[in-house]
Amino acid sequence: MNSNKHTELANHAWSVADLLRGDYKQSDYGKVILPFTVLRRLECVLDPTREKFAEVYAQYEDEDVKPERLLRRASGHAFYNTSTLTLKKIANDANTAAANLQLYVNAFSDNAREVLEKYEFGRQIKKLDDAGLLYRVIGKFTDLDLHPENVPNHNMGYIFEELIRRFAEQSNETAGEHFTPREVIKLMVNLLVAPDADALSVPGAARTVMDPACGTGGMLSAAEDHITDLNPDATVEVYGQELNPESWAICRSDMLIKGQDPENIAAGNSFSDDGHARKKFDYLLANPPFGVEWKKVKDEVEYEHKSMGDAGRFGAGLPRINDGSLLFLQHMISKMKPVDVDGGGGSRIAIVFNGSPLFTGAAGSGESEIRRWILENDWLEAIVALPDQLFYNTGISTYFWILTNRKAPDHKGKVVLLDARDQWVKMRKSLGDKRKELGDGKNGKPNHIADITRLYAEAVQVAGDPEHELHGKVKIFENSDFGYQRITVERPLKLRFEVTEETLAGLATAKPVLKLPQPEKFVEAFRPLLGSAWATKAEAFVDLKDAVVAAGLLWPGGAPFMKAMREAVGVRDPEGEVQMVKGQPEPDPELRDYENVPLGEDVEEYLKREVHPHVPDAWIDHTKTKIGYEIPFTRHFYVYEPPRPLAEIDAELKALEAEIQGLLGEVTE
Predict the structure, then answer these.
(1) At what angle do helices 121-130 and 30-46 cross, to 10 degrees?
(2) Comparing C-alpha atoms, which of 245, 188, 187, 235 is closest to residue 211?
């Protein structure tokens, strides 16, 4: 089926909006159109076995407990409908349409009926009936041919995605939260599965695939298709979890139709209500929402982090509250299969991120600690930079992170960075923020997907061959190359001492002075010293104490008072006296600086080489040193472009001036 056909079918389904206008808000059109599309698809799938099923069901109709397995076998699917009604029959009688449609829906097996209930379908039936629209809406959908021989499952996914995109536009929601462009999914699945092609070709191969933010199930379907293309006899079980109820219902209905176990698609939040707790999978992939906060599940996530530590999912660290991307990755890592002593087992992960998880968070932050945990465990295989404007809901640059706990020998201890940002073609028509796509070699387009997949497979060889034409697109680093030591560089506090009007004003508001019996008189005792200056603290405090005694007052003691006095009379001066604390120079907080030193480099040598030539009295406070990890992808692929020569720019400006003068001359003639 070509794209025009599935767009035509989506248009037919969406044309129901013309009937709903006035009785429904635009943002609610999808609440009718989506469940009716699902219902019509279920009906079309069951249509070929309807008569055979009726014969089998008649044998057990009077029994209290129906034989589920036999009924499913009779329908040829994991679900069935025991009614003799059809949407066409229901639409023929407007007076009984509501009652009959409810009977028809209730006649579905529990797993199919649950899908429709997620849309609150009963409420929509009543609302449509009250408005006199129900039989007309049903009639529209009876004309929609969604039989599998005309609309394969893959294309049905396109139709659902197109409807969701329109629903999101009407609702002012983000369509990209629900699905990922298919060509992006195809490339992602290639990079995830391709290294295992030989193992998957073995007779009897069986694999499990999981997506913790599965949306409408596009990634799960693509992974299943890819594996079965490699080996038609392979057994593939897919699992997922989805928060959005409409997307969950579509994904679950898709699994029903394909013969997958719909119970494997869990509803709810993956962080607070893990639908696949204690399960492990061969492949995990996800496109979690970019930059979405996790405040709603903050208590549950923090409790698991603190109470379970490394035994839980989030032991490595917690990212900032406004972006839960790295929580998804930790969740997925917790579901990797362990590698056995013979090197078997293990898992592979692919996830889509924006640029933030690469570098957000300083040393010691939650993000940095998560990156450190991943890299020190040697799980990160590669990061692939994609073109911008690939996704429906954002034009920003995105990246694939590929992880595994069973790296190939030539990848161990290393990370591949692959730059595919120039692999795109412009779309004829934009979809939201999506203006570019990856070519698949069809309709005259380049095959970017195959090219990137091939380059990924040959990354080690290409990176090691300076003569290769794509050498500049691949770089390989040791895991430790992304680590750094965040050092704190201190410089001594240097002060001179003086009494000015500002000094007296500062003393008058200092808390230790205000607590004295006669604070005003105490401050006035220093007025005779106005204009005085001292090079050292000892000299200054001798004269200050004498002034207080001369005024008939006592010189207070205690650290708070001494600190307040120094702050009032001390003035920072590069040539001033170095202040000492317990025999050591006191650091000046205002001169404190931080440096990132590559992991493994001697920080004292770095200080001598990079800092001492400029500030010889600086030192490192080793108690504050932290280890951090970041992946500055764009920095590694930056290519310097010199500015244009001034003569060239000048000549261009003169040419423009001449052109403007010529145009002005034509106007004045």
Answers:
(1) 110
(2) 188
| pLDDT tens per residue across span 354-387 | 999 999 999 999 999 999 999 999 999 999 999 9
Phi-psi region of 387 (alpha: psi -120 to 50; beta: other; left: phi over 0): beta
DSSP 590: G
Per the CB < 8 A criterion, the answer to whether 534 and 540 are in contact is yes
Q: What DSSP character marks residue 480?
A: G
Alpha carbons 620 and 607: distance in angstroms, whole number: 8
Give, for 238, the enclosing helix (H) or strand (E). Answer: strand 235-242
Q: How many CB atoms lie within 10 A of CB 210?
A: 27
β-bridge mates for residue 596, sequence order: 486
Distances (CA, A) of 662 to 127, 234, 654, 658: 70, 74, 12, 6
Q: What span, in angstroms and rounded, lies between the C-alpha atoms of 587 and 584?
A: 9
Query: How many Å apart are CA 68 and CA 209, to the nearest integer?
Result: 27
Sign of the CA dihedral 644, 648, 654, 659? negative
User: Distance from first CA to last CA of the chain, Å, rounded?
Assistant: 62
Residues 87 and 97: their CA atoms lie apart, in Å, by 9
Task: Tally the C-alpha atoms within 13 A of residue 130's C-alpha that lie toward its C-beta.
Answer: 8
**CA 52 from centre of chain:** 48
Residue whose token pair is 């609150």: 120
Q: Decide: helix, strand or coil at residue 414.
A: strand
Q: What's the CA gap between 643 and 451, in Å, rounded? A: 32
Parts of the chain with a pLDDT under 50: 174-176, 178
Q: Which stretches of 187-280 are assigned E, i.e. beta strand?
A: 206-211, 235-242, 265-267
- Can you tell me the distance from the alpha carbon of 273 to that of 281, in angstroms, rounded to the nearest whole number? 18
Assess contact for 413 and 473: CB atoms under 8 A.
Answer: no
pLDDT in tens, 75-84: 999 899 999 9
CA–CA separation, 464 and 315 (whole Å): 37
- Name every residue whose Cβ is closer than 8 Å to that of residue 221 and which is 6 or more positions away in sequence: 153, 154, 157, 238, 254, 258
Nearest 5 degrees, angle CA 372-CA 378-CA 379? 90
Length of the chain: 669
Residue-level pLDDT at 3: 61
613-620 contacts at long range (C-beta below 8 A, 24 or more positions apart): 615/491, 617/491, 617/492, 617/585, 618/489, 618/490, 618/491, 619/489, 619/490, 619/491, 619/585, 620/487, 620/488, 620/489, 620/490
Both structure tokens of 217: 């199930």
Q: What whole-number distance in Å separates Cα of residue 657 and Cα of residue 648? A: 14
Alpha helices in 259-402 (DSSP H): 298-308, 325-333, 356-359, 366-376
Question: Which residues are CB-neighbours of 566 under 8 A, at least 6 positions away?
Answer: 495, 537, 579
Cα distances from 571 to residues 185, 331, 500, 503, 533, in angstroms, run 63, 54, 11, 10, 10
Nearest alpha carbon to residue 39 among 131, 106, 130: 106
Distance CA 89, CA 332 (A): 47
Could you tell me the two tokens for 529? Answer: 């010293």
E strand intervals along 579-630: 580-581, 584-585, 593-598, 619-620, 626-629
pLDDT in tens, 151-210: 988 788 888 888 887 877 766 554 445 468 889 999 999 999 988 988 999 998 999 999
Q: With beta carbons less than 8 A apart as the criterion, state whether 39 and 141 touch.
A: yes
3-state secondary structure of 209: strand
Q: By C-alpha distance, which of 376, 380, 272 is closest to 333?
A: 380
In degrees rounded to 5, what are phi and psi of residue 21?
-55, 130
